[in-house]
Amino acid sequence: MRHVLALLALIAVALPALPQYDQPYRPQVHFSPREHWTNDPNGLVFFDGEYHLFFQYNPFGDVWGHMSWGHAVSKDLLHWEELPVAVPEKDGVMIFTGSVVVDHENSSGFCKPKTECLVAIYTGYQEHFPGGTRQAQYVAYSVDRGRTWTNYDKNPVIDLKMADFRDPSVFWDEERHRWVMAVSLPKEHDVQFYSSTNLKQWALLSEFGQLGDTDGDWECPDLLRVPSAQDPTKSTWALKVGLNPGAPQGGSGEQYFFGAFDGKTFTASHEKGAHGWTNYGKDDYCAINFNNIAKDEKPVLLGWMSNWEYAAKLPTSPWRGQMSLPRRLSFVKDVEGLGLKQEPVVETLRDGAATTLTSAPREAPFELQVTFDPKAEQIFGMRIYSDKEHYVEIGFDRKNQQLFMDRTKSSVTVAQEFPGTTVAPLTEGRGFDLHVIVDRSSVEAFAQDGTIAMNNLVFPTKPQVRVETFGSKPTSAQVWKLKSIWK
In the annotation, is 284 catalytic? Predict the structure, then answer.
C-alpha cells in the first residue's frame, strides 16, 4: 500500500497545476472534480464556516475503482475549492459511501480535550475478503477541520459479516441525546436503524422496508426532518432511499417516504403523496443532506448527477461525474396531499437583472423561470436547441397529466440507455410553472412550485443554444445569465 500513499501525495502536490475547469461539457455551476471519476456525495456537513463535500473518488482514473473520499469545501454551497484526497483506500479496504458528523461534546473521545471535531462513519468494502466480499461500517476522525483523517484502530464498528451492507447516514438525536444511524441492507430492501452514545458501539433499534419500490437494491438511505413550506414551525420526518436498478425512469433513482420517527422506529405515512420520487430525471442519485445546518434553515440535499446505466461512458475528460445543484427542502400539504418541495440554490450566481425570453443564441450556464396559463393547450413547454435537429424538449402534457423531458434528439448518444423521455405525474391545482437551470452538460427542471424535480444530462452539439416555447405562449418568462463558479 506504500506506493498508493506515495501516489496520493504526488496528486496532492500536483493539484494546482492540473487543467482548469473549462473543457467542453465541463459544468460551470455544478461541482465536478478536476480530473478522474466521481460518484456519490459523502459526508456532507457544515462546520466552522465551511460546507464540506466529500465524494466517492478514484484518484487513479476516470472509471470506478480504488474508491476513496475526495474532498472540497465551500462558503456558499456553490463555489468549491477542491482539496487533496481525504480518506484513501488502504490495506485492501475501499472507502464507500457514508456521512460526517460534528461531535460537539466529544462523545467519541476522538477530539482534543474540551473541543469538537469531525467524525466520519462510512462503509469499508473488502473485495478479496476470505469467503467473498465484505461490507461493514467504519469510523475515522479529523481534528483539523477535515484536512487529515485518522481511522479508528478498532474498525469496523458494525459488521454483520455480509457482502451487501452499506451507506450509513448518521445524525444527532437531541431529544434522546444519542446518535442515530440509518444503513441499508440492499438485497433485502431494508433500512436498519442503530443508536450510539459514542459513535463506536452501536445497538440495533429497528428495521424498515418492503414498502414502495423494491425492484432493485436499496442504497444511500437518509433520514431527516423536513419543515413545512406553509408553516415553518411544523415539520415531518422523511426517509429517502436510493434504488438501483429498477427506477421508473430506468437505472438508478431515489424514492422518499414521509412519516414519523419516535427515536426508534420509522413509520411511513399513508397520506396521499407521502411516497414519491425525489427526482424524476435519469440523473440524480444517492443524494444526502448536510449535517449541522442551523436549526432555522431548511435542510439541503445534494446528489450525484448521473446514472449507473451509462456513468462510465460519459464523453467527458479529464473528469467523469458531477454533482447536482444543492436544493433546500420543505414539504407542502394541500387538498391534493403531501409533496416534497425543492428549491435549487442558484440565485447568488445571477449575473445582472433578469431579461425577457428571446430565441437569441446564448451560452450555458443560464436560468429560466417560465409560467404558462392554466387554460393552455394540451401540450406546451419549451425547447432548448443546439441546432435545428438537436434539442431538449421540456413540457406539460395535460391529457396524460405529466411533466416530461425528452432528450431523444438532444445531443451525443452516450449509450443505448441514454436517449429517452422522463416523465413525472402532475398534481391538479399546482400550476404550470417551470424553473430550469441549463449548464454545459445538464438540464435541471423544477415544476409546480418545486414539487417536481427532473435532472437530465445532455451533451449538445454546440456550446450556444436557443430557447423557444411551443404550444402556448407563457404568461411570464425571465432569464438570467449565471456566473461560473470557477471564475
Answer: no
